[in-house]
Amino acid sequence: MNFALVHPLIVHFPVALLTSGSVLELYGRLQKEPVAERAGHFNVQFGFWALLAAATVGLLGLLDLEVQDKFRSFLSSHILFAFTTAVVYAVGMICYRFRSKWWADRLYLLLLVVGLFTTLATGYYGGELVHRFGLPSGGQPLAE
Question: What angle do CA 128, 27, 32 make, to 5 degrees?
């Protein structure tokens, strides 16, 4: 199976869940809407687990690519932001468990904001890889 072709197909699901979940949870907290906050947190949790699956497929997809200098910096930035996103939301999930403590609650909200931006940055660099450089297949030879 060519994971480099599968990754762009499945990655939109965790991006949508993490983005909508973070925005919805922050909105719910600021507007004191517990239903929105709970729905947002569900999306964040589900998006985190979907992120791990998409990241695994993406790493396996690297084995199918012939990395060239013309897109190496974009690929590096995409991977860096993807790992940063995973770490931010993982720490956020831990903080959420201790949200009864004021510092954990504040840190969790901060991590939601940071995670939102790292998710969008990951998507930006991934989109550039697909649309600017034609990865994973458009003119890009796949390693056999």
Answer: 170
